[in-house]
Design a protein that fits this description.
Length: 269
């Protein structure tokens, strides 16, 4: 026997079917204010790219907040082997993610997202957290030399180049001045060295020319001078926010970092 379904019921079933293609039935999605509700518009995936002398775990306080607010989050282990190869790695990683992406870069990670986002149409917003934003043809080293303070570094010869890390005795003052001493000592101990090609490879893309961008400037930064951050951010046409924080702002001020990322994410809808 054939049963006739009223049109309004059929439309409702169809809507649920579409929702089920992206969100399992009955799964609660967090709203922008952190409350729980069913959402028909999945939030973009936030992809976090760390910079030199850090690792993906440095995003942990930010990831916790983003997940609480219902955002899918990925934190990439940036190889730190040079802008050209790091860009290729992140571009390849982005190709595995379905749907819209908010791409976030801290410090040197900003240079990486500037280049890798250009190859992925799913990247809908760029967020620079105390980040380098190089123009085409520039190197991170050239930008840093303009106004950034000198950082005490330790060099290690490796096959095919040189790796550098921050002298642990000066890590807190250079990188994490507003982080407690114990946490700063832990960060210094687990820091990942960066190959010098990270600062000598020239940037070849300017993704910020076509993708909306946000920039959080850290006023107490001793790794990338605030004035240099402002110059790059204004040149990129970014939405600019500022905070009294050190370079390790994702650890010392994770709420502010999360807010800037979510502002960018809301713009993708």
């Amino acid at each position: 026997m054939r049963i006739r379904i009223p049109r309004r019921v059929a439309l409702a079933v169809g809507a649920l079917a579409l929702l089920g293609a992206t969100t399992a039935p009955g799964v609660a999605m967090a709203t922008d204010d952190g409350s729980s509700s069913t959402s028909a518009s999945p939030k973009p995936t936030v992809v976090l790219v760390h910079g030199a002398w850090a690792d993906s775990s440095s995003w942990s306080p930010v990831m916790e907040r983003l997940r609480k607010d219902g955002y899918p989050v990925r934190a990439i282990a940036n190889p730190l082997q040079g802008l050209t190869s790091d860009t290729a790695y992140v571009s390849s990683y982005l190709s595995t993610i379905k749907g819209p992406v908010v791409l976030v870069g801290h410090s040197y990670g900003g240079a990486v997202i500037t280049n890798s986002a250009a190859s992925d149409p799913d990247v809908k917003a760029l967020v620079y957290i105390a980040g380098f934003i190089p123009a085409k043809g520039e190197t991170v080293g050239e930008l840093a030399a303009q106004s950034s303070p000198a950082i005490p570094l330790v060099s290690t010869a490796v096959p095919g180049g040189t790796d550098v890390s921050i002298d642990p005795a000066h890590f807190r003052e250079a990188f994490a001045g507003d982080v407690d001493r114990t946490t700063a000592a832990d960060l210094a101990a687990v820091q990942r060295p960066a190959n010098t090609r990270a600062v000598t490879d020239a940037s070849v893309q300017e993704a910020f020319r076509t993708i909306p961008s946000w920039s959080l400037i850290t006023r107490q930064d001793h790794a990338i001078a605030p004035n240099l951050q402002r110059f790059m951010s204004k040149r990129a046409g970014a939405h600019i926010e500022e905070v009294n924080a050190s370079h390790a702002v994702m650890i010392s001020r994770p709420g502010t970092v999360t807010q800037v990322i979510e502002d960018a994410a809301r713009s993708t809808r």
